[in-house]
């Protein structure tokens, strides 16, 4: 068998072995290699098979008749379930695990020097990114992707919820691959599911460019605000990647018109898109005349939030041409009342995208709108972890300035008049360095902000000297043109602190909190583990 070589890049900046493969997530699609059926993959091994995104792909391949195996660093519910299905799973990652594998699947979380990667390369196995497998599976299903710098997890989770709750026939029991777990009345639900229906809902990850491989029936773009510039280099390249993704939509392209980046993508398309384009927006002044090729505009009207309840309300006005494109016999526009259990105008937009996609798939409009009412959100999206000592503790995944501003705006609306305290863990040194000023501006919407050490993910601290827990508070001090050694009160009233020790920062926040306050643990790393720490400390105060 010929070897499927990975790219190598000389002069690696991490000081490691220069011969290590740099895993390019934009490898040629499997279809170009003649693989058009999962069984053409041969024996297929997943590195990190227990992850939510990987496990669902492994199960779907198994369901399609492929020979699947996998490995993971630790045992979990997913590895146990896969074994019950007859999929061999090894705990611990070792070169011997890939023996006999013709195809080896990796994700961006896998390091280039992983022993299974090196062994597969040496053996001449086909190395493919998880996105190649997802693209292959999309070809045999009715597929919907959700892309965007923000909101894609909530939007894809809500669409999966609508179909699960109200879908009939081919729309019932969808498969979904969502980058996070979901909240439910019975506790967290896994973000990966293999259903009996024909629909596949998937997040389209833009972080590494791999979403350029997908050709979905419906592509949703929630926003296009530059991020992951460590990969793309420039904002222009980031925008262009979304343009290429949009061109791959086969039937419909659903885009948020409230986002200037998304509108720029539509302008760059110049009408060169095989899909019918539908825009949704809350901006009453939005002029569609400058956007060629748009079939119709769905307006989000009468948006409001019940003060203190966290329930979001809006009305969707769907034009007749959108309804007709969905196969409905509509001679006039339709208005749908939407009531959500998740707060904020950003969630009204997310719901609009999900409901529009459900209708385009063939779901009854009234059923789609009504089914949204009891959606509790994706886990770590304004997730209330508990109340102790009169203090409410909320956890959220926000890790970009725009997401943080939306989160804190929603918190102000849900908890009017309360003191808002934030424990923020930045995600990636590069993002912290690039957006330090914007992080400071967004976090200033709170009253009390503690920034802790940066969650590095794939990056090394040594590559970013001087970027640490103090970077954002320093930006806040600079913006205020006044320095203080350990805190800064800005004109908004926000006090910034840096505390590299996250556990200590959590204890300090709990000690400062007063009954009625709200504490938010915020970030895409492991800051979520501090919610229970804060609640336990608050409980101790109740016992004193």
Overview in brief:
The chain is of the alpha/beta class and 544 residues long.
What report would you give on this structure?
- This protein is of the alpha/beta class.
- 32% of the residues lie in helices and 20% in strands.
- The strands form 3 sheets. Strands 8-7-9-6-10-11-12-13-14-15 form a 10-stranded mixed sheet, sandwiched between helices. Strands 16-17-22-18-19-21-20 form a 7-stranded mixed sheet, with helices on both faces. The chain has a 5-stranded parallel sheet with strand order 3-2-1-4-5, sandwiched between helices.
- Helix 1 (52-63) packs across helix 4.
- The chain starts with 43 loop residues before the first strand and ends with a helix.
């Amino acid at each position: 068998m010929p070897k499927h070589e990975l790219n190598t890049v000389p002069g690696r900046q991490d000081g490691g072995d220069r011969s290590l493969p740099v895993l390019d997530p934009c490898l040629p699609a499997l279809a170009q290699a003649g693989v058009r059926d999962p069984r053409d993959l041969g024996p297929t091994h997943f590195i990190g098979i227990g992850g939510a995104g990987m496990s669902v792909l492994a199960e779907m391949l198994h369901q399609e008749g492929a020979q699947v195996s996998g490995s993971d660093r630790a045992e979990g519910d997913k590895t146990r379930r896969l074994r019950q299905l007859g999929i061999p799973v090894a705990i611990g990652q070792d070169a011997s695990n890939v023996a006999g594998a013709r195809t080896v699947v990796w994700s961006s979380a896998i390091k280039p020097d992983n022993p299974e990667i090196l062994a597969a390369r040496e053996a001449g196995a086909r190395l493919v990114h998880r996105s190649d497998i997802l693209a292959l599976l999309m070809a045999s299903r009715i597929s919907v992707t959700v892309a965007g710098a923000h909101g894609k997890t909530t939007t894809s989770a809500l669409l999966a919820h609508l179909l699960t709750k109200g879908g009939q026939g081919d729309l019932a029991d969808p498969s979904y691959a969502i980058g996070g777990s979901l909240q439910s009345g019975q506790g967290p639900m896994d973000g990966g599911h293999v259903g009996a229906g024909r629909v596949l809902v998937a997040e389209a990850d833009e972080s590494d460019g791999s979403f350029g491989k997908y050709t979905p029936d419906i592509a949703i773009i929630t926003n296009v605000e530059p991020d992951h510039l460590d990969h793309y280099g420039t904002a222009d390249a980031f925008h262009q990647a979304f343009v290429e993704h949009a061109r791959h939509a086969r039937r419909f392209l659903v885009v948020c018109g409230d986002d200037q980046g998304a509108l720029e993508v539509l302008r760059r398309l110049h009408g060169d898109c095989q899909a019918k384009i539908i825009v949704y927006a809350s901006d009453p002044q939005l002029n569609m005349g400058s956007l060629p090729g748009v079939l119709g505009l769905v307006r989000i009207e009468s948006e409001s939030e019940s003060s203190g309840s966290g329930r979001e309300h809006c009305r969707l006005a769907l034009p007749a041409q959108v309804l007709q494109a969905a196969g409905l016999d509509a001679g006039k526009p339709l208005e749908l009342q939407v009531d959500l259990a998740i707060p904020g105008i950003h969630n009204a937009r997310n719901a609009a995208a999900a409901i529009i996609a459900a209708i385009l798939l063939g779901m009854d409009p009234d059923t789609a709108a009504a089914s949204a009412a009891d959606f509790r959100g994706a886990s770590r999206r304004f997730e209330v972890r508990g109340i102790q000592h009169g203090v409410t503790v909320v956890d959220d995944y926000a890790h970009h300035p725009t997401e943080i501003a939306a989160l804190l705006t929603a918190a102000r609306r849900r908890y009017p008049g309360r003191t808002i305290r934030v424990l923020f863990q930045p995600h990636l040194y590069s993002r912290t360095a690039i957006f330090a000023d914007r992080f400071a501006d967004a976090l200033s919407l709170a009253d009390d902000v503690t920034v802790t050490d940066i969650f590095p993910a794939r990056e090394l601290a040594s590559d970013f000297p001087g970027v640490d827990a103090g970077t954002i508070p320093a930006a806040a001090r600079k913006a205020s043109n006044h320095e203080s050694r350990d805190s800064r009160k800005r004109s908004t009233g926000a006090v910034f602190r840096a505390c590299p020790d996250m556990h200590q920062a959590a204890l300090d926040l709990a000690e400062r909190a007063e009954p009625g306050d709200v504490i938010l643990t915020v970030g895409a790393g492991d800051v979520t583990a501090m919610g229970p720490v804060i609640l336990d400390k608050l409980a101790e105060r109740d016992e004193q």
